[in-house]
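testing teh design pipeline on a random one, pls ignore if ur not involved
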């Protein structure tokens, strides 16, 4: 008998698998990688700054060092280059933005904001519509999410059951869970927005957001090792092309690419670059954002061997390693999960659903 069944094949499930592996906890992964495209469509960017408020991203001081350690360990494990350290270019639209940047860079945001103000005519930028001056965010970067998922599948191939999980086949007892011929002590659901189809956790309050991205070829464009943030993001991929994103849509929650999304992305792109380009790929996925924008982790209120790891939203690459570790500490050492991520904050919704 194994310790865990992991349900899901995206970023959350893969991070949980690596974390369980690091802690010598046995598992099987069950899921169809084609069921949801959210992780494959993602750019995998981590950014320690909330630009709207010019504050640190939630728990950035703890999360950024941990994610670097975690993904570096995964790179060694799977023998693949997966993360790239980058700086984020943030153009200044008004003088007061620059003044606020300098103030924050010399005080509470010193670890994450470059104190130097850069000129847009920098040799590092060619054919970018960045005029005037800009600041650089430090300690940012991106995970190559598709490669991370592929490498995880290869490394854990003996742990994989490649099929759509059928919740009706799950049998529960006080001590075990069984799914077809697989018997485990526990099961953890990492299903993203598809948790809506999970009869055990369909009461959790997600607020999913569809996002579309483009991959473009633009040989005359030069951004070097940066991510341009200007009403969207633009960054270079390992193949030399560029990733552009992203849209936000809360009504259409299909994973179909749309003409509306394409037009919005091209508008963003035309505000960012001044050279010819060719679209090489157009992707869509649905982000599993939670109602209060915090992860949803922990134990089912009625079944003590059922767990959830969800609600990572737009910051999954940042949040997943840190909170997977929190989950394992909760499981192994009975450490209490932080209140603001504990699924217990929504137990009243489960109770009202039952009545």
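output:
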């Amino acid at each position: 008998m194994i310790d865990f069944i992991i349900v899901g094949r995206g970023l959350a499930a893969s991070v949980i698998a690596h974390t369980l592996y690091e802690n010598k906890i046995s598992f099987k992964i069950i899921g169809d990688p084609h069921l949801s495209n959210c992780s494959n469509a993602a750019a995998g960017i981590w950014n320690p700054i909330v630009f709207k408020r010019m504050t640190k991203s939630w728990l950035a001081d703890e999360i950024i060092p941990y994610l670097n350690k975690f993904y570096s360990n995964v790179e060694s494990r799977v023998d693949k280059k997966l993360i790239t350290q980058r700086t984020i270019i943030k153009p200044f639209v008004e003088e007061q933005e620059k003044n606020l940047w300098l103030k924050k860079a010399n005080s509470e945001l010193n670890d994450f904001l470059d104190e130097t103000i850069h000129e847009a005519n920098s040799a590092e930028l060619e054919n970018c519509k960045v005029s005037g001056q800009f600041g650089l965010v430090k300690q940012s970067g991106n995970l190559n999410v598709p490669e991370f998922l592929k490498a995880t599948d290869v490394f854990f191939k003996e742990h994989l059951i490649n099929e759509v999980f059928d919740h009706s086949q799950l049998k529960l007892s006080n001590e075990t869970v069984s799914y077809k011929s697989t018997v485990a002590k526990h099961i953890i659901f990492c299903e993203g927005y598809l948790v809506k189809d999970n009869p055990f956790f369909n009461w959790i309050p997600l607020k999913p957001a569809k996002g579309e991205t483009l991959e473009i070829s633009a040989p005359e464009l030069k951004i070097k090792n940066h991510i341009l943030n200007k009403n969207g993001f633009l960054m270079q991929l390992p193949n030399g092309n560029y990733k552009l994103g992203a849209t936000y849509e809360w009504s259409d929650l299909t994973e179909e690419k749309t003409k509306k999304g394409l037009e919005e992305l091209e508008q963003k792109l035309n505000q960012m670059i001044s050279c010819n380009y060719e679209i090489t790929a157009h992707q869509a996925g649905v982000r599993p954002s939670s109602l209060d924008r915090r992860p949803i982790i922990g134990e089912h209120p009625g079944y003590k061997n059922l767990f959830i790891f969800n609600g990572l939203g737009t910051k999954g690459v940042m949040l997943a390693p840190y909170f997977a570790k929190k989950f394992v500490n909760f499981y192994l050492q009975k450490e209490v999960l932080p209140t603001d991520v504990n699924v217990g904050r929504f137990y009243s919704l489960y109770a009202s659903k039952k009545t």
